[in-house]
Prior knowledge:
The chain is α+β, with helices and mostly antiparallel strands. Helices cover 56% and strands 10% of the residues. It has 3 domains: 5-156, Four Helix Bundle (Hemerythrin (Met), subunit A) (Up-down Bundle), CATH 1.20.120.450; 159-297, Beta Polymerase, domain 2 (2-Layer Sandwich), CATH 3.30.460; 301-412. Strand 3 (217-224) and strand 4 (229-235) form a beta hairpin. Helix 1 packs antiparallel against helix 4, helix 15 runs antiparallel to helix 16 and helix 15 runs antiparallel to helix 19 (395-412). Residues 161-210 form the Polymerase nucleotidyl transferase domain. It comes from Paracholeplasma vituli.
Amino acid sequence: MEYRKESLIEEANKVYQELMSLVRDTETTPFLYKGRDFNHRDVLYHLIAWHKILLDLYKTNPNPPIELKKGYTWANLEALNYTFLDEGRIYPLHEVKRMLDHSHESVIQLVMTLSDEDLNQKNRYPFTGSSVLGEFIDECLALHYGWAMRTIGFQLGDPTLRQLFDTLSKRSEIDALVLGGSRGKNKGDQWSDYDIYIYLNSPLKVEDRKTLLDPYMSLMEYNHQFFETEDDGVLKNGIGIEFIYRSLKDFTQLIEQNLALKLNRGYSTCFIDNLLTSKIIFDREGQYERLQTHVRVADKKAVYKKVVEQNVPLLYGTQPALYDQIVKAAKRHDLVAINHRLTEFLSLFFDTLFAINHVNHPGEKRMLELANHLLFKPRKMVETIESVLKEHASQESLIELERLTKDLIELSKKV
Length: 415
């Protein structure tokens, strides 16, 4: 992509005005969902901090590996972003808005001094690595402002749910309410349900749940026990919703067991991912947020190493290895067994792949899509998996699956 000074400035100013208009229209409305950013100020200060990083890097133009801020590199980016969060909390929103006006203008003034060649020439600025200065600037201006608008819009939430959550938060049995699942990750689509996790300190009777929830539902089924205790239904706006009831004490113990390397095969770090990616709606005494912080900063390298160690022998190279079982099922033309073993194989394959990348297991949906965005992955992963599924484990596709598995094992040695 070629970057042009005039268009970078024009787009940045345009999106910036849209962002500030959104802030003016919504700044008195509290966020319904709280993730890393709890309010408008947190989002805007994040932009300021990255403006400062850009300006400092341009001024010093360091050679890689670079420090984005003292003690922080691209390798611990998440920790850096939480540092910005702590920095910004000392300022009121009106002061942060003033600071953002200033930092935005400072970056625009920098761009005005540059030529199109400056923006597009590779290796001209060592700190940009394999990218160019124009990309770095775009990421800190228009693209980042777009992120800020999406974040604000998402975390303001569905206003029709505010009264429901406010009603639930008044119950003394409830310690915390959080939004999980794909909507909690802001990756939902028109088919996505709301996954509301209700953390209890004592049981909430089914009759009480009916009284609390029925006024908001067009359809509701109570007290399912298929996996966890759940109430499942459809809101009056037509969107599905699930209420999953947990003990916060028991959930904390489960997470601590995960950190102590007691993990399920195939879904090893799912609960850790669920904890860290869920957005807080209500947290009576801050227990859920403290658990998030504890797990987020914990060293999880041993967890990922354990996942690989326990999964790889079952994928390939041992007597009970799933790859061999798939081959045998294919020779028998047993389609049910092929699909059964492939399901188990893929469960361990993706579990291992995410662990190799030090990424927590994201759950069952969009697995191949999410895996394809990982930094480390086997060659021709998507093509091979789609082929072996579509061709019901044909001989040719199984040869490719074996190659894929061996590639994964080689990658696993990086953990």
